[in-house]
């Protein structure tokens, strides 16, 4: 889910319908991110669907344009800066960010996602890709980036791994570098509907990648405990909890 908001229950039904015939996912647990997302992104259409619940290219570009505005309000990326995305998927946002920064690095847990993103962004000479373990950004060098962002990803992670990424992002940021993270906000009506919709699914039938929410207090704890020099948490568009921070 990204950009314009879909009806929560409709989105859940779409997810579950897409899972029919994927019995192999039932053996995977939520924390097996690499196995789950590599399976879901075997094809370009499959990968695109799990990025935005649609395979329509026009929708992909429209949601990217919408989201870039929200991210730029927190990051203020300029032409002379190096940017990294955690969970880049098919390069939806990379296609928008690459022209406005010095370099863009797309990181993802799935090698399939990275291959799809590389094809999508092949026209840009300033992009590169890094495969992650699913729990941190360890392959990325210390103090090498001006901005790091992670959007529409935390919903698929456990709390411990959300914090892992926030903590490790501080390591790879230069002094003064900025971080942006978001998730669906449980404290909003929209987030509560998502929560209730997922709660209604039989616990033994919930897919491992199903989305879960966050609270502003959760983000405040993560950002303060990770040691950022300044941070800010807010609710955006009556749906998202957004955290921004500076190293």
Q: Describe it for me?
A:
- The chain has 247 residues and is of the alpha/beta class.
- It is built from 9 helices and 7 strands; from the N terminus they run ααααβαβαββαβααββ.
- β1, α5 and β2 form a beta-alpha-beta unit.
- The chain is globular.
List the helices and strands and how they pair.
Blueprint: H1 8-19, H2 33-40, H3 44-52, H4 57-75, E1 82-86, H5 94-97, E2 103-108, H6 111-120, E3 127-131, E4 145-150, H7 159-172, E5 173-184, H8 189-199, H9 216-225, E6 230-236, E7 240-246
Parallel strand pairs: 1-2, 1-4, 2-3, 4-5
Antiparallel strand pairs: 5-7, 6-7
Features:
disordered N terminus, single chain, about 250 residues, seven-stranded mixed β-sheet, alpha/beta
Rg calc: 17 Å
Please indicate the percent range of residues in DSSP E strands (runs of 2 or more).
Answer: 15-25%
Q: Count the helices. How many?
A: 9
Helix content: 25-40%
Output the strand order for the largest sheet.
Answer: 3-2-1-4-5-7-6
Distance between the amino and carboxyl termini: 29 Å
The largest sheet is: 7 strands, mixed
User: What are the secondary-structure elements, in order, as H or E?
Assistant: HHHHEHEHEEHEHHEE
- Average pLDDT reading: 89
Poorly predicted parts: 1-13, 19-23
- The gross shape turns out to be globular
Classify the secondary structure makeup into a structural class: alpha/beta
| Number of strand elements | 7
Concise overview:
The chain has helices at 8-19, 33-40, 44-52, 57-75, 94-97, 111-120, 159-172, 189-199, 216-225; strands spanning 82-86, 103-108, 127-131, 145-150, 173-184, 230-236, 240-246. With 247 residues, the protein is of the alpha/beta class. It is globular, with a radius of gyration of 17 Å.
